[in-house]
Amino acid sequence: MKPKGFFTKAALCGCLLALGLTGPASAETARYEVTTGDTLLITVYGDAGLTGTFPVSTEGTIGYPILGNVTVTGRTVGEISDEISDLLKEHIANLSVAVAVKEYAPVFILGDVQRPGKQEFRPGMIVLELFALGGGLKDRLATGDVTEAQLATLRQDYADMGLQVFAQTIRRARLQAELSDGAFQPDVDFSNIRDKAGAQGIIDSEQQMFAARLAAYTAELKSTELQKISYVEEIETLKKSSGLRNEELALLSEDVDAASKLMERGLSPKTAVREKQREISATNRDALEAGSFLARAQQNLSSIEGRLQTLKDTRRNDAAQGLREVELDLLRLKRKMEFAQQSLAEMGVTLQNSGASVDSMLRFSAVRLVDGVYQETPIEQHDRVLAGDIVRVRLSLDETNTASVQN
Description:
Blueprint: H1 9-17, H2 25-30, E1 39-45, E2 52-55, E3 61-64, E4 68-71, H3 77-89, E5 96-103, E6 107-111, E7 117-119, H4 127-133, H5 143-180, H6 196-264, H7 270-353, E8 360-370, E9 373-379, E10 390-397, H8 399-406
Parallel strand pairs: 6-10
Antiparallel strand pairs: 1-2, 1-5, 3-4, 6-7, 8-9, 8-10
């Protein structure tokens, strides 16, 4: 007798043929609502002092600089990002905010399992997957069930890896656009993607990242260009002033010569010559000071031109480094997917060739915090696990199968 409540043959074939984004995890990730116990990573482009990790308190808030306590539970990271961005605009202009879940609140499994205790949560995780992570049934009454639970976990892992490959591919397109100073317009064929909402969420996230980084880069570039223009205009003004001062010196020299000749003939006092000489000295001092200003302005212009080049080089270098990391991650993920695909095929053959002699009945329940009070609710093996859940597993056997188990 085959186990009840698990995969049909058609479903098994479907999982062996699944490629790319076939699992539910991507959609769950896109609409995941933050809960108590999560840790958020908030990145603020334009003010590194506002970037950091923030644990979600039991009150459902995070303590954020400038803003104080911000309520985040029951909201997606996109909604949280929008609110923090709007609130910060009241204090600091030209900031871009990105929010991600750095660590999810852990989940717990207890009862008739091999390894009860804490497990890492992933959006899209189902009860059967958590059951497999707990090692399956404590007393190994139903080997077939454990194998199918492992198959469910492997299928989920395979779908998650497909999602990661898609995400890294879109990220690579964004980095290539930054490297070439081009537009970010990923060409995606949605016809072969089962979870279109999750895929679109990844694209939207990368587009927001591209727009935020481009806006910050463009703003700094524009500010630096304006400084360059200011120094160029200052240099031109100083040069023109220097030319006028040279003409003034020439005229003063002629006046001194004329006064000296008049003095020699007794037609002009000696003090008139000295007065003209003092004017020449003062004009020379002004010329020296203006020369110092001109040298400083030229030095500042050179520094600004170097800064402009550094801005462009930094953007390209960051993109190139990111591309190297993406390519390495893609290579690793594709190798893992090849191994997982082979394992799925082998496990499928094993299930098809084996017959289960035990009809196990698993009962699951979840202990969850509802309105500040923990409540235990029955759940099914394919239900979603929520972050922070405490899942209890109980095993009961049909009376018709008790004799076969004892034999």
